[in-house]
Amino acid sequence: MTPTPLIPTTENFDYIIVGAGSAGCVLANRLTEDPATRVLLLEAGPPDNEPTIQVPALFSALFGSEIDWNYQLEEQAHYQGSTTFPRGKALGGSSSINLMVYIRGHRADFDRWGALGNVGWDYDSVLPYFIKAEQNSRLGAPYHGSDGPVYVEDRLFTHELSHAWVDAAADWGLTRNDDFNGPSQLGVGAYQVNCHNGRRWSCADAYLRPAMRRPNLVVRVAAMVTRVLLDGNRAIGVEYVERGAERTARSEVEVLLSGGVVNSPQLLLLSGIGPADQLRALAIDVVADLPGVGENLHDHTMAPLVWATEHSTDLLEMASPENMTRWQSGGGGPFASNGGEVGGFLSTEGGEVPNVQFIGGPTAFVDHGRTSPPLPNFTILTASTQPRSRGRLWLRSIDPLTHPHIDPAYFSCPEDLSDIEAGLRIALGIAEQTPIVEYLSGLNLPAETTLDSAALADHVKRWSQTEYHAVGTCAMGVDERAVVDPRLKVHGIDGLRVVDASVMPTIVCGNTNGATVMLAEKAADLIKTGSAASSS
After folding, report:
1. What is the pLDDT of residue 536?
2. What is the predicted pLDDT for the residue at 10?
3. What is the pTM of this model?
4. H or E segment at 127?
5. Which residues, other chains included, contact 482 with Cβ-Cβ below 8 Å and sequence gap of 6+?
6. 329, 274, 332, 301: which is closest to 57 by C-alpha?
7. Residues annotated as part of the active site
8. In whole angstroms, what is the distance from residue 482 CA to residue 490 CA?
C-alpha cells in the first residue's frame, strides 16, 4: 500500500480524519464515496507492509514492534499483572495486530447505550450497520451480511485440542453455539475470525485499500497530529508533524478524531478540551471544560489457566517451514490459527447476559505470548465481560509525543475479580471432562495443587493482562460527564467529532473491533446525511 506522495504546503479538505485505525479506515472509505468530498487521512504509524501482519498465528509477534504504540499502564493498586498495553500503530490500527476474533457484543449492551440517552444506538438501530459491514462465509440473514467489506470466516485450521475442549464444555453443561452474534451469545464453540482465505483481513484491507484508488482521498503515514486548530469554539483543522516538519491542514466541514481510546482523548486535552483544572496545571488554555475527557476508562482483563498436554501437539511445535509453505500456498494449516480458536460466553449467575468469556487454544498464552512453560500446552483465558472498574487517562506533559498516564484501575471493583474466579472454577471443571482430560497431564500455571479461593484470587491478580478492549475515554451521552453527543459531536465544539471505541459509554460483552466498525459505519451516515440518528 503506497501512501499519497508528500505535499509540503498547507492544504484544505472537507474532512480531516485523525487515525487510520478501524474506525478511521471506515470513515475514509464511506466519506469518499462521494467524489466531490475531499478527505485527508493522517496516520502516526507506518504503512501496513509488515508481512507478519497477514499471518494469523504470528499476531503476538507484532506486540512491541514498530506498529505498536507500546503503551505502559500506571502501577495498579489491586492488580500485579502485565502493565503492557498494546495498541496498533499502522494503517489498520489495532485491526492489524489483534486476535481477529469477530464478536459484536450482546444486544443488551447496545440497549444500555440507548437507555443512557443515546438515541439511535439501541440494538435494533445498530444491527443494520453490523450487517452492512459483514461478508460472512457461512452465516446469513437475518443477523449476518453477505456482501459487506469485512470478511468473517470459519478459521481454516482448528486444532484437535480445541475441538476436544468444546466437547468437554458441552459435557460439563454449556450449550453449543455456532453463532455468538446471532439469537443468543451464550454457549461454547469455535470463534469466527476476520480473515479471508486464512489471512488476516484488517480494516485497511476491507475499507482503506479500495478507497485509496480514489483521487479525493489523501493518506499520509508517519504523520503525528499534535493539535486540533480552533477558531473560538469551532474546529478548523489540525497541526501535525510529518518527517520532522510541522504542517497544517484545514477542514472546511469537520475534523474527525479516530485515534482510539488513548490518542483521541490525549489530542482533545492537548487542544484545550477537557477538565479545566488539569489543563490549567499544564498551562494549556481552556477552550471547553469537559470533565469527562480521559475518564471512564475501562477494559476487559483475562487470566490464564495453562495445562501441560500429552498425546497431541502445541501450535508452536507446528511452526515448521512446511506448514508455512502450506499457508502461503492456500491459507490453510496451523499458521491460519489465531491461537484463541475456541471459547464462549456464560453467566455464572444464570442470567441471559454473560459475565464471563472464555478464549482458548493449543499453546501457552501468558503475558501477551511472551511467557511459556515447556511445550506442549493448552490455555484457557477467562475474562469478565461486564467490568465495573473505571480508571482514567491524563496528560503526562504538553509534548504530544510523550505517552499519557494510563490507569484502568483494574480490579478496583472486587466484583470483576469475583467474576473471573467463578469462570476459572468452571474452566477447571471442564478440564475434568472425558473429551479433554486424556490430553491434559497437569496444570503448568498456576502450579498450586490446591486452588482455594485465596490462591485463585492471587493467581488472577498476578497473571492477568488486558484483553486489548479498552473503551470509554470520550464517552457518548447527554449528561455532564459525556464528551460527545449521540451524533458523536464533541460537546461545546462545532466541527469536531470523535469516532472510535473511546466513545463507547460502556463496554460490550466480548471483543470490541466488530462494534467499533459498526460505530464508524453509523457515524459515516450521521456525517453524510445528518438524519440517521433521528430516523433510526
Report:
1. 36
2. 77
3. 0.96
4. helix 123-133
5. 292, 475, 476, 491, 505
6. 332
7. 469
8. 9
Question: Where are the strands (E) in 301-439, listed by range?
Answer: 301-309, 342-346, 356-361, 377-384, 392-394, 405-407
What letters, b where the CB count within 10 A reaches 16 and e where it falls short, cover 394-426?
bbeeeebeebbebbbbbbbbeebbbbbbbbbeb
Contact 514, 254 (CB under 8 A): no
What's the rounded Cα separation, in Å, for the pair 215 and 208? 13
Q: What pLDDT, in 10s, does the model give residues 65-122?
A: 999 999 999 999 999 999 999 999 999 999 999 999 999 999 999 999 999 999 999 9
Amino acid at 290: L
Q: What are the CA-CA distances from residue 359 to residues 192, 257, 356, 481 (Å)? A: 12, 31, 10, 34
Nearest to 304 by CA among 260, 245, 359: 359
Torsion of CA 130, 134, 140, 142, to 10 degrees: 20
Q: For residues 431 and 439, what is the distance between their CA atoms, to the nearest angstrom? A: 9
User: How far is Cα of residue 273 from the mean position of the Cα atoms in its chain?
Assistant: 25
How far, in Å, CA of 402 to CA of 267, rounded?
Answer: 12
Helix 107-115 and helix 123-133, axial crossing angle in degrees, nearest 10: 130
Grid cell at residue 492: 461545546
> Looking at this protein, which amino acid is placed at residue 105?
G
Residue 211 amino acid letter? A
With 0-12 / 13-18 / 19 or more C-beta atoms within 10 angstroms meaning exposed / middle / buried, residue 181 is buried
Cα(179)–Cα(198) distance, integer angstroms: 19
In one-letter notation, the amino acid at residue 213 is R
Predicted pLDDT of residue 532? 34
Q: How many CB atoms lie within 10 A of CB 122?
A: 17
Sign of the dihedral through C-alpha 345, 347, 353, 357: negative
C-alpha to C-alpha distance for 466 and 88, rounded to whole angstroms: 14
Helical packing angle, 414-430 and 160-172, nearest 10°: 100
d(CA 286, CA 272): 5
pLDDT less than 70: residues of the chain:
1-9, 530-536
